[in-house]
Amino acid sequence: MEFQAQQQQPASVMVGQQFCAPYQIELTVQRKRLTFTGGDFTVTDSNKNIVLKVGGKMMSFHDRRLLQDAAGNPLLTMKQKTLTMHCRWEAFRGDSSNDKNFAFTAKKSSVFQLKTALDVFMAGNKDEKVSDFHVKGSYFDRSCTIYQGGRILAEMRRKYTVKNVLLGKDTFAVIVQPGVDYAFVIALIIILDEINKEGTQQD
Predict the structure, then answer these.
(1) What pLDDT sits at residue 60?
(2) SS3 114
(3) Name one Pfam family in it (predicted).
């Protein structure tokens, strides 16, 4: 699967203009591993303010995640598409899975991978011949990089602390470039995490 050549224009708004900062930002993503829904996330800024939350939808299977803003307003519903070879996930605007609210889809670039790579196609990209975004991840390093063409939009690295290990939490630092929709970035990271977890369960 090829992806678009490097673009000089900033990435478009994907979730909301309020999530696009004119400067580089660093976010901290923290996951509680011991939860009923299989791992809830909080996303904080450099001042430790919660900016986003992610959780499993109650009374549903674990293959469904809901991205919310700090106030709990639903932004994106992400769910796994069943019976696909490439571990495809779909995202819908708000608390919905209605086709009219379809935002984007992400799937593994190939069936067999040593390191997880995802191709991301926005709603208007019907033929899916060229991906709009590309994600390269390493499950063992707990890291990933998100690209638009050859341009890096965001990078994630794991943060190791004794406190997090004792409390059963995974913590990650995410660097987001200026003008990039960080809610969209977090959504892709969550999907990558879900696909990685599925891969380890199958091994």
Answers:
(1) 52
(2) coil
(3) LOR
